[in-house]
Amino acid sequence: MSVAVLVLLGVLAVGGGALTLRGERRRHPLGAVVLVVVLAAAAVLAWRTGRVSDGLASGGVLLAVAAAALAGAPVVTAVLRAADPDTGPSRRRASDPEVLRGGAWIGVLERTAIAATVLAGWAEGLAVLIAVKGLGRFNELKAPVAAERFIIGTLASGLWALACVGVAVLLRR
Q1: By CB distance 3.0 to 4.6 Å, which of 53, 92, 126, 137 could disulfide with 96?
Q2: pTM of the prediction?
């Protein structure tokens, strides 16, 4: 069962990376749903498996960080679209990539940093990360749409990273 967890984490990393490369405007929300279901299956299997050898646990850590970093963008995009009632085929208010430009790349780095700090046992690093991110976007956050997108995107991104890391933690316990 532990190998199945690693395979599912690998599928998340590769599949999520492929969806991320498609771009925000071309993503279908069904891809995000599939990613969430695959992560949930990996978590259940990891929970049932319990502690594994150090080699498999290390592989789980690497794959969990990769899944957190690469597969988060489609999930965050789906959450942002669901949170914006004005999003439709002809309207792209908060889901417009021009609002908070560079957010997709920042998200990859953010999820990688979240995963690394949690796995390293340095929870204070999360506060540092959020502070740096907020300071970097300070001027842009004066617009209500940007502030809303920042908060929702950051929370969705962080929760995705923590969920991926949770699978690795289940394998190490």
Answers
A1: 92
A2: 0.84
